[in-house]
Amino acid sequence: MPAFPTTRWSLIRASDRAAGDVGAAWGELVRDYRPAIVAYFRRGALARDAEDLAQEFLLRSIRESWWSRADPGVGGFRRFLYALLTRFAAQQRDAAHRRYEQGGADAFDAAGDATPERAFDLDFALCLTRGAWRTLGAEYDADGRGELFAALEPWLAEAPAHGELAALAARLGIAPNTLAVQLKRLRARFQKAVHAALTQLCVDDAQADADLAALRDALASDGAHA
Amino acid sequence: MTDWAAAAKLGVAAHDDVAAQLEAALASDDPEDRRFDDYELVERLGRGGMGVVFRARQASLARDVALKFVVGGANDAAAVARFVAEARAAARLNHPNIVPVYEVDVVEGLHYFSMPMLAGATLAQRLDERRVERDEAIALMVTIGSAVDYAHRLGLLHLDLKPGNVLFDERGEPLVADFGLARAMDADGGVDGGDVSGTPAYMAPEQHDAARRLDRRTDVYALGAMLAELLRGDAPDADLDAICRRCLEPDPARRYASAADLVADLARRRDGNAVSVRVPAWHERWRRSVRQHPAAAIAVALAFAMLIAGLAATTSQWRRAEAARADAARQQARTAQLAGLTAAAFPQGEGTRAAQAASAGNAVAWLQRHLAGDPAAQREVLTAFRVALAQAGKAEAVTALLDEIVDRMGADYRERAVRRLFAGRTRDGTIAAALVGLPRGAGEHGSDVYESALAALYTSYGDDAYALYVAALACHVQPLPCEHPEYRERLVERFPDNGAHWIVTPRGSAPSDDDIAAIVRRAAQAPAFDDHLGESIALVRGATRATEPPPSLVEPMRALVEERDVAPSLRRRAIDAAPLPVYGDVVRVCRPDGAAIARVAGLRDACGTLAQTMMRAPRASILAKMVGSAMVRRLYPNTPLAAEAYDLRRQYVWLGERALGAPNDAERLYDDTIAFGEWEAFGRQADRRGAARTPPAGWQPLDARVLMLPEERDAKK
């Protein structure tokens, strides 16, 4: 049994679910991570068709129930999705080869330095953190602290310039050092939310930690990407 | 706009420790920084595997509380979910010796629960400071064990019981803490092992093995480890050692099945009674001579009836409201609470057996009246009551309750058995019908079959000493006057050589002191004394084996004993109820300071002779021997005879504490009593258990008062 009842990934991995439920869950999940799928194709051999390929991948994965290959041994969503992409891309390359041999256009113009895997990880991390941020915003709203959340958002990952926080504190009517503490707490909670979101896409803590390390690597080696 | 790459880097960075975050807030000078919702953190109190605890000020209620935050990463989402569910369950606990959980909530993404700040030290700290006296240790463990039993009954296992988790409030009352991290039992009354962690010194073997199931016996182990620690450095104590060993058995099946059972044994030890693991249920025949306090008994019985009424009402309402489960849980708690009040009102201790019997009798009569024909409902109420009694350390009282159930609810069953026994008109059947059919309640008439059985013994077995004795004895002990002096007359005419035969005068014949003095003088001439207990046990035991008890009796009994113990309990009660002569009149006229001795020539010597015969007769019941011993001690104080009598009493107490063992030993004791008499049976039981038959020089019983004569006991008070 999954430890928490119905994350989409645990739903997909549970073999006894009705196919309709699972298909819907899969569709939502891959759409949430579409940017990572596009990024993968953009860094690959078929970069010019990246958007189209992503769309085709999405549709076929849903139509052909690719999630059903997510047997209990398969592990987390990130690796599973990556494995599907690799296989799909290989099939596309074979098809392109055949077109080339039949006199088609040059399909092998590699794009950029980043490997498809790294690009995929980068955008996967962005999808993940944006999702976690939205969840956190909803929590603040529920606590009646939506205004604080919105006000602090610009400084989530950036040190405020001198006087900026003081001005904001004055506007919100709270003490400046209190606002500083609130910002610290916001960051801590954001981290927690990201970890929670990733954990929900993994089978266990060890795998979540491994995924986290991989995402950290990808982000560290490509600071310019945004 | 947010730099999402930077935000993502922050998001996937190794996250800050929750505890560190809280510590940072604590370091701030601004109270606002230390504020979490309604709370202001004051200081950190401690940190454990799953949580970190702060002292905090709750602004709205202006009180200090302990706030426990769950630490560990968001990776522990499942653990957090479990924490919240179980802290909520713990918040349901409402017990004076459990640290309550005020609130379970999440503030700014941090899960926490709040508890009262307790002024006193923990038990661990107290143990560091000083040794805990033995009596204090027992009292502590009775309280703690009762609290744990309460939690068990509400479906929670603690799994980390240790002195560090027992706190004292300002009154010095111990409270069990950390139920916020307890585990809820599943339908099978246990939890799977695995990620449960504990404190090694107090962890049961099964807690070290993730594959094994944990249940209430896991907590029993920890309670035993605590008891052992409290007693460390104390002089060895056989009872307490046995109790500890039973708790610390590596195999859960060999431990106490529940904390309640442990508490019951500790309470027995505290009250100077035999404990079940060493010396179980020695049926104290002395209760017949215990003086009654009618006013107290009636007052208690009244309070008791009112409480029981509330209890049963709650229970039946609860059944009607079964649809709403939350409601059921509340009703269950209410039932337990009422049962607790009822149990608290239940008399207990030395000299209260009559009051106990009266209270128990009242309760059972009430159940019969108000839940008539509904044995299942009776069982439900009785179950709640049994649990509450155990919790109040009055598990012994269960026996009184059980006896009343058997006596009152078993009346029809007994009547059927009597008819069947008498139907064959055999000697043994007729005697058994008389013994089993003997009316028991005050003012109760014997049935026609019972009267016919007595008459048949007189007419058809007039040459049979025991048959005739049973007729006379029944006539002697029945609650209402007996119209048949001829039973005893023929008995002493044909079998005058047994002193016991002279004593069984018919009930209601109101003999004067001079009459009794004459009886004593006559009985003293008899060379033997045998009150035929062995023969009676043999016949009653056979009779109870022959008839299956009906559900109307079995159901309520099942509330108090296991299924397999129903038949033995019925047998025990029947055998306990096997009649013996009433020696009160004889004891009274033989008092050396009494009027009769002063007036009647030769009575003093007759008393002395009879008393010595009783004390020394090999087949006399222990009751007869003890009566003889007491009479000798009064008549010949400070003589070798008195010393012999005192030694006999001492030996009896010794044998009682040493000799009586596990419940199945009762059957062997009955066998031996039938074959050799009750005294020799006790001796043989001691032999089997490897104990000496006589106490070593200098040995004293747990409660030295049991060696005293009643008047010496009173003087001592």
UniProtKB/TrEMBL annotation, chain A:
> Which biological processes are named by the entry's GO terms?
DNA-templated transcription initiation
Q: Which molecular function terms from Gene Ontology are attached?
A: DNA-binding transcription factor activity
Q: Which InterPro entries match?
A: RNA_pol_sigma_r2 (IPR013325)
What Gene3D superfamilies does the record point to? 1.10.1740.10
Identify the SUPFAM superfamilies for this entry. Sigma2 domain of RNA polymerase sigma factors (SSF88946)
Q: What is this protein called?
A: RNA polymerase sigma-70 factor (ECF subfamily)
Organism expressing this protein natively: Tahibacter soli
Q: What is the lineage of its organism?
A: Bacteria, Pseudomonadati, Pseudomonadota, Gammaproteobacteria, Lysobacterales
TrEMBL record, chain B:
> Where would I find the Protein kinase domain in this sequence?
39-286
Protein name as catalogued: Serine/threonine-protein kinase
Q: Where are the transmembrane segments?
A: 295-313
Ranked from the top, the taxonomy reads:
Bacteria, Pseudomonadati, Pseudomonadota, Gammaproteobacteria, Lysobacterales
- Pfam families in UniProt: Pkinase
Tell me what organism the protein belongs to.
Answer: Tahibacter soli
User: What Gene Ontology molecular function terms does this protein carry?
Assistant: ATP binding; protein serine/threonine kinase activity
Q: Where does ATP bind?
A: 68
Q: Which domain of life is it from?
A: Bacteria
Q: Which PANTHER family match?
A: MITOGEN-ACTIVATED PROTEIN KINASE KINASE KINASE 20-RELATED (PTHR43289), SERINE_THREONINE-PROTEIN KINASE NEKL-3 (PTHR43289:SF6)
SMART domains registered for this protein in UniProt: S_TKc
Q: Which UniProt keywords apply?
A: ATP-binding, Kinase, Membrane, Nucleotide-binding, Transferase, Transmembrane, Transmembrane helix
Q: Which InterPro entries match?
A: Kinase-like_dom_sf, Prot_kinase_dom, Protein_kinase_ATP_BS, Ser/Thr_kinase_AS
